[in-house]
Write a structure and sequence with these properties.
This protein is an alpha/beta fold. The protein has two domains: 87 residues, no CATH class; 127 residues, Rossmann fold. It has eight helices and seven strands; from the N terminus they run αααβββαβαβαβαβα. The chain is elongated.
């Protein structure tokens, strides 16, 4: 009886690993074809291929201690992702801020990504409730982009009725740290001391962005845009790694 239960558990575990691995690998391939290549896409592919390999070899190398370590890593990543999501979906914007910073995301050639459109639509909704706030669009030009993200973002906002004088474009940033540092420099030159800001980014990115905004000296609240489900593996895996590195260098 014990041997039968063990055999069934092994069969279930092997099937689960193969299905998960196939799903993650297919997701990474699809993202690689339809979206810009990122660290998150590469991590999704590696995890997917790892699950496929583990599933194929599981009957022979399914040692308990290895399984326990693997499950522990998976549980830790799931828990961290859940923490980031729970923080990210609790918006703190009060709609009385002096400025709104929209953090950049991928542009595919000349076309805005679904992620970037989501952030800009959140900014438009914010503007309807607080039209007096300046809007800073922040993002430089990546290797697979034909124009700076900030330029594409500004064009989108102009096309949706935002006045040119209400938009500041920061088109040099290549990281979240630079997003806030360069945006702050623009706002310091435009607004009196003591101004407040809110920032828009996807829910998975809110926690780390908040830490970075605070380190940059900004009094910032946040407003989230929701990541489409098919981007979850790539975005959360990448962000989990980034948050772990932040905790190692700066503490939790």
């Amino acid at each position: 009886m014990q041997q039968t239960r063990t055999s069934r558990w092994r069969s279930f575990a092997r099937a689960a690993l193969l299905v998960l691995g196939a799903a993650l690998t297919a997701n990474a391939v699809w993202l690689g074809v339809t979206a810009n290549l990122t660290v998150g896409t590469a991590m999704t592919a590696l995890v997917g291929l790892g699950c496929l390999a583990w599933g194929a070899w599981f009957p022979r190398y399914g040692r308990r201690w290895i399984s326990a370590v693997a499950l522990g890593i998976v549980a830790a990543l799931v828990a961290l992702s859940a923490f980031l999501a729970s923080v990210g979906v609790r918006d703190t914007a009060n709609y009385h801020e002096d400025a709104l910073i929209v953090l950049g995301a991928a542009v595919h050639g000349d076309d805005l990504s679904r992620t970037l459109i989501g952030r800009l639509d959140a900014a438009l909704a914010y503007h309807e409730r607080n039209p007096g706030a300046l809007i800073v669009v922040s993002g430089g030009q990546g290797p697979q982009e034909n124009l700076p993200e900030a330029t594409a973002m500004r064009q989108y906002l102009l096309a949706h009725g935002i006045a040119a004088d209400d938009i500041l474009a920061e088109d040099r940033a290549t990281s979240t740290e630079e997003n806030f540092a360069f945006s702050k420099a623009l706002l310091d030159a435009r607004l009196p001391a003591g101004y407040t800001v809110t920032y828009v980014t996807d829910e998975f990115h809110v926690y780390r962005a908040g830490r970075i905004a605070d380190a940059a000296g900004l009094d910032a609240t946040h407003l989230s845009s929701r990541t489409p489900w098919y981007f979850w593996p790539a975005n959360y895996l990448r962000e989990d790694l980034a948050v772990l590195m932040l905790w190692v260098t700066s503490g939790p």
